[in-house]
Amino acid sequence: MSRPEHRGIGMTSERTRERLVQRLRREGIRSVRVLEAIRNTPRHIFVDEALASRAYEDTALPIGHGQTISQPYIVARMTELLLEGGALDTVLEVGTGSGYQTAILSPLVRRIYSVERIAALQQQARHRFQSLGLRNIRLRHSDGGMGLPEYAPFDGILVTAAPEGIPRALVEQLKPGGRMVLPIGPRREQVLVRVTRKGSGYDKELLERVAFVPLRGGVL
Ligand code: SAH
């Protein structure tokens, strides 16, 4: 992370990032590894230059195509929930978007498969991963509601757009004991859920209220 544009200045400096880490800690994020990943990842390169000065506020921001980069607190919380059970080998992410959540996961798992339905967003994310030197990420342009059967089963699945209910296809692509963290429900009534695969069924924990863009079918 030695490139000047990654280091940032002023509102995008390391000091600004450190303030975000302190804030997330106050908001209840406990995982040292997750906080470290947030500290080391320049969020300002995941948004348009015009928004770079706001990149370390704890808010979602527009990334074009009607989509948003998730709020840092939610990224940290979902990552922490996914990792709580121990080390993860392969993870599926549905909704690459800006790629920020993917970049946070990258140092914490062996391999990530990330699926995005909007090709233009996927292209931008790919360039960001290249410039950061992140090599354990595989991107797919497809409808992630179906999962990625050819690479299943996964130790973890993280969904960053909200379906109305828990997609069965995704549960079936979890290893026994594997976990999936996802928002479910209609706009303004979503809840964050953690699903743990148990035999042919699963356990479900309802965690907190959240606001995500909807999971949509088809590709663009
Ligand atoms: N983790 C991303 C969140 C982006 S918003 C970030 O922090 O930037 C959610 C993303 O999910 C959007 O980019 C949207 O295009 C994508 N998405 C929605 N439905 C999808 C689907 N069925 N398959 C794959 N991606 C989907």
TrEMBL record:
Its EC number is 2.1.1.77. InterPro entries: PCMT (IPR000682), SAM-dependent_MTases_sf (IPR029063). PROSITE patterns: PCMT. The active site is at 70. It is found in: Cytoplasm. It comes from the Bacteria. It catalyses: [protein]-L-isoaspartate + S-adenosyl-L-methionine = [protein]-L-isoaspartate alpha-methyl ester + S-adenosyl-L-homocysteine. One of its GO terms (molecular function) is protein-L-isoaspartate (D-aspartate) O-methyltransferase activity. One of its GO terms (cellular component) is cytoplasm. GO terms for biological process: methylation; protein repair. Keywords: Cytoplasm, Methyltransferase, S-adenosyl-L-methionine, Transferase. Belongs to the methyltransferase superfamily. L-isoaspartyl/D-aspartyl protein methyltransferase family. Catalyzes the methyl esterification of L-isoaspartyl residues in peptides and proteins that result from spontaneous decomposition of normal L-aspartyl and L-asparaginyl residues. It plays a role in the repair and/or degradation of damaged proteins. This is Protein-L-isoaspartate O-methyltransferase. It comes from Sedimenticola thiotaurini. The gene is pcm.
